[in-house]
Predict the structure.
Amino acid sequence: MSAVLDEFISFLGPRVEGQLQGTAKLVIRDEGALMLDQTGARAGDDAADVTLSASEQVFRAILSADQNPATAYMTGKLKVDGSLQRALKVSAILTA
């Protein structure tokens, strides 16, 4: 597992724990994927209710509140596959 994925898992685990029903997958281009669910964050590439895909830079900007997730989606920087309702919930968790 990459150091980038380790960093994202450590950062997102406490944010996601108990906050998300179902599953979400974050695909960080050129780094790999991580899974988010009610237990937290972990490395993985399983099936999910929603998949968010972007570069490491875009995810970092979203996490630091320098990038609005909706704007990133509308400009093509963030790809969403699956439930848009779940994507909005994940976005709220990422920007909390």
